[in-house]
Design brief:
The chain contains 10 helices and no strands. The chain is mostly helical. The protein folds into 2 domains: 81 residues, Rna Polymerase Sigma Factor, Chain: A, CATH 1.10.1740; 96 residues, Winged helix-like DNA-binding domain superfamily/Winged helix DNA-binding domain (Arc Repressor Mutant, subunit A, Orthogonal Bundle). Helix 1 crosses helix 2, helix 3 packs across helix 4 and helix 7 packs across helix 10. The protein is elongated and about 65 Å long.
């Protein structure tokens, strides 16, 4: 008499999380199969680049693998994973934008002073790299000190590369208001950075 195939019992929600926390390969295989498309799509929504989205989605699963023992089911597993995906996507956006942004400060502020303070990473000494990191920190601190509406508009424009129209829609305001916010943000940052560079000469 033929024996029925030995099928593994399906996971319940709690047993699935417990299996993940025990780092059972079958559970992680199911996790990837079940959530890969969602994670890639979520990341693509921020990054607009398939290769980057797939890379970040892979980082999400690596983070889940590394941190699943900390998961306490206070939120749904999928919610937790989406938060990781969003944070990692935004971090990559900031990293890429910052590289472009620092190099374009001269044009943005209409002068040469700031650009001269930012050397090429490929031709800098360790001391210059430390100084460059400090300047980036100061710049970020200056942005964080902007009034909230200016900070939102400036960040959406410079980090997310949104158009004035898109920013106006996000902030539920007019195009002229966005133009005014960005103009004031630029002036405020000029003052803060001018003070920093001249006080540290």
């Amino acid at each position: 008499m033929n024996q029925p195939p030995n099928r593994q019992q399906p996971y319940t929600t709690s047993s699935f999380i417990e299996a993940l926390q025990r780092q059972e390969p079958r559970a992680f295989e199911r996790l990837v199969n079940e959530y890969k498309d969602q994670m890639v799509n979520t990341c693509y929504g921020f990054l607009q680049n398939t290769e980057d989205a797939e890379d970040v989605a892979q980082e999400v699963f690596m983070e889940v693998f590394k941190s699943i023992h900390k998961f306490r089911a206070e939120a749904k597993l999928s919610t937790w994973m989406y938060r990781i995906a969003v944070n990692k996507s935004l971090n990559l956006i900031k990293k890429k934008k910052r590289k472009q942004w620092i190099g374009s400060l001269q044009n943005f502020f209409g002068g040469e002073e700031v650009a001269k303070q930012v050397p090429d990473n490929q031709q800098v000494s360790p001391q210059q790299q430390i100084e460059q990191a400090e300047r980036r920190k100061v710049l970020q601190q200056a942005i964080e000190q902007l009034p909230n509406s200016q900070k939102i508009a400036f960040t959406l424009h410079k980090y997310e590369d949104l158009s004035y129209k898109e920013i106006a829609e996000v902030m539920d305001t007019s195009l002229s208001a966005v133009e005014s916010l960005l103009h004031r943000a630029k002036k405020n940052l000029q003052k803060k950075l001018h003070h920093y560079y001249h006080s540290n000469r």
